[in-house]
Design brief:
The chain has 139 residues and is α/β, with parallel strands linked by helices. The chain has 7 helices and 5 strands, in the order E-H-H-E-H-H-E-H-H-E-E-H.
Length: 139
């Protein structure tokens, strides 16, 4: 099962944000244990790095976190065609629309996110961490 993971889940884990950490960590564990093929969009990686660096105030620690992240999940490219495709999606948030367009092109089965309502009009179904864990347990 191919899953594109929204940056909010990644940041929950890297920053141990409560009350979201445990459920988000379970998504990363699914990828680590090869129960899913987990990916983060390349376009999200810069946002994730920015937030981590801003909060830890140490560029080397932020860089180490990003390297570690790449050991846990794959990175899928965001192409110019994904940007173009995102414009026709009926989604309010541009970043979410680009993620959805990228997930579609990548033929992902799901988008894992904590903000499922933001992906109502996504061409790829969005699931929250608990739903993804349940789907993996059922298969």
């Amino acid at each position: 099962m191919k899953v594109v993971i929204d940056s909010n889940i990644i940041i929950d884990v890297l920053e141990r944000r409560e009350p979201f950490f445990q459920k988000s960590y379970e998504v990363i564990q699914l990828s680590l244990n090869k129960q899913i093929d987990g990916y983060v969009c390349a376009g999200c990686m810069t946002d994730i790095h920015y937030i981590i660096r801003k909060n830890v105030k140490d560029n080397n620690k932020a860089k180490e976190a990003m390297i570690h992240l790449e050991e846990l999940v794959g990175v899928c490219d965001t192409l110019a065609s994904d940007i173009t495709a995102s414009h026709v999606l009926d989604m309010n948030d541009f970043e979410d629309a680009v993620l959805a367009a990228t997930a579609k092109r990548e033929k992902a089965d799901y988008i894992a996110t904590r903000n499922k309502r933001d992906f109502i009009n996504s061409p790829v179904a969005a699931v929250e961490p608990e739903e993804l864990v349940r789907l993996c347990a059922e298969s």
